Structures are given as C-alpha cells and as structure tokens.
Amino acid sequence: MNLFDLKGKVAVVTGGNGGIGLGMARGIASCGASIVIAGRDRDKAATALTALHEMGADAGFIAADITQKADCLALIAGAEALYGRVDILVNNAGTSVRKMPQDLSEDEWHHVLDTNLTSAFLCSQAAYPAMVRQGGGKMINVGSMMSLFGAPYATAYASSKGGIVQMSRAMATAWAKDNIQVNAVLPGWIDTDLTRRARQQVDGLQNSVEKRTPQGRWGTADDMAGVAAFLAGPASDFVTGAAIPVDGGFSVAM
Known about the structure:
Layout: E1 10-14, H1 19-29, E2 34-39, H2 42-54, E3 59-63, H3 69-83, E4 88-91, H4 106-134, E5 137-142, H5 155-175, E6 180-187, H6 193-201, H7 205-212, H8 225-232, E7 243-246
Parallel strand pairs: 1-2, 1-4, 2-3, 4-5, 5-6, 6-7
Helix pairs in contact: 1-8, 3-4, 4-5
C-alpha cells in the first residue's frame, strides 16, 4: 500500500495561484492528483499553472469569488465537469488588514472574515456532496499561528483563523460517518506576498521571527507541500479534527 498515492484523485485548491496554496498544490500534485486552482487573478493563475505543468501535473484553473455561495457551487461543479470527481479540498484563500482593533472598520472586519472563514465554510459545504458520491474525501483548512496566538494588529485575522480550527473540528465530527477527514494546518511565518507586506508594516518582524524560530529561518511555500500530501492521502485516513503547526518550532519555543 502506497500511503501517499493520489493517482486518479482530484484536488481543488482555493488561492492555489501562489504562496502557501501553490506550495500545497505542488505537494498534492507530486503524489499524482489532478489539481484545480481557484481564484480571481487570471494572470497569477496562469503563472501557477505553468509551474504545475512543468512538474508534470495535470492542472486547470476555475475563476471564482469564493466569498459567494453561487461561485463555490460552480467551482465544485466545474471541477467535476473537468475531471469527473472531487476528492480533496484545500481551503487556503486568505487576506489580512493590519490595524489596531479600535481602528478596524466594520467593512474591513467582514472582508477578512468572509475571505478567510466564510469562504472555507461555503466551499466545504459545496464539496461535501461531491465527496459523498466518491465514498469519502479530504478537507484541509489553512489556519495560522494566529489560530494560537494574539497580536494587536490582527484582531480580524486571528478571529478568522481561530474559527478555521474550530470549524475543522466540528466538520470532522459531523462528516466522519461519510469517511471525510477534515483537518487544519497552521503555517508559521512563511515567506509569501502577504508576510512580505507584514514585514513592511511591523517593525522588527523579520528578525524577531528568525530569533524565536528554532530552525532559525522563515518557511517557504514548499515547506507546506509535505503536510498537504500527508493530509490529502491515505496516510492520514485515521487523522481528523487535528490542527497541525508547520512552523519550524515557533509555537513550542520560549
């Protein structure tokens, strides 16, 4: 039995056109799965598809605004139309507004919560019947170190990512009977466009992260590939409701 064999499986990755999402898509594709990346930026998606095709992956793109239920339903239907099935869902799309809580507008709060948390709920809900038809599936929800820690500039973001963990646990218990495993991953400080902006906005962040992280570096998007391959495949068939840090030891360091 190959615990990481995903040949014949189909994965939908929201926000899979760059950063952590693309790193996770690469990991899943390396095990043989076909990949559907979802997002709104067609140019960025084209670059991501080129990277996936260069590694030999079968991959396509579906444009979607996953904060909208109709787009989430259309995304899953489109993936089934392209490949005949959906076995794996990676809810990765995310954003942040870095402001002190007293300065955060209601619109900014809803924008972050809708993008990070509501979209994951809507996509999971849309994918559920497709997975039931296949006899099971894997859902991987991308949380954050802010699922565990607080930061003064991340009220909305931390709330959304804490919600990701609890949503994953609740869905894991609801859908275990359907042979659907639902887990969360908690990336540490990964070098992405989002965190590059954070380093511009938060003084000393680069050095403080390197100092606290036992491995002494920021993560890369490809550091997320292994956990994605594990949670997408049969190796994790008895793992559900977990929240797995991928952070170079940041969350256990003093």
